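Weekly structure sync, notes
Attendees: PL (lead), two postdocs, one rotation student
Agenda item 3: pending single-chain targets
PL asked that the sequence for the first pending target be pasted directly into the notes so everyone works from the same version. It is reproduced below exactly as submitted, 214 residues in total.
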Amino acid sequence: MRMNSAVCGVVLMAVACSGCLRKEVTQTIYVAPSGVVWSAIERDVRSEEKAPADRIREEHDYFLAASAGRHPMAEAFRRLGAQSVTTTWLRRERPYSVMTGARFGDVRQLATAILRDAQARGDVTLVRDGCQMRFGVRVDLDSAPDSSGDSALDELLTDLETYRFVLTEGHFVSADGFEIEEDGTIAVPDKTKTATDGILTLALVWADEGCVVK
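Predicted structure, written out during the meeting:
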């Protein structure tokens, strides 16, 4: 289901591309005490149009939009309410590569914006418990429309394998709906996670540097 992918892969949610542009996308959500930065890298962006003139036109349109910081990825972040959006060229020649970064106040603000954009009922919590932070999401998947039409998530959704949460400080201590990688600073979506009676729950808990977890 579309909403399941959105929450698992982004809250954490084939790239929804404009026209016939083809690209490979990786998504990293950096979680820091000062806020959250979602970084999306679009690699090897190129047109699949058959006619050379159409291919050149489509790629040129993307180049101009990215140069102005107005390409679809950046616009999607703005629609989610990002505090700031930056665009960095990694490769200006065809095939293009662009990194787009968006800053949010915290992971709760980001998750709430995702639910709002998906038109889904749910609640998000972010609570400090001593030297730990507890983040939780509860979503009624049945409340989300199958297609929300013009949505920021249409551009931001990719396969679950492309997403990861990275702590800039501290380490993850527990997770539901995510898998914690060996060093404890990275969590990736758990592809086996499913909803119960239409309700999807996700959780991440991380500890400050030097925190002793009992």
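Discussion points:
- The helical segments are 2-11, 52-67, 72-79, 107-118, 153-156.
- The CA atoms of residues 157 and 171 lie 26 Å apart.
Action: rotation student to compare against the earlier draft before next sync.
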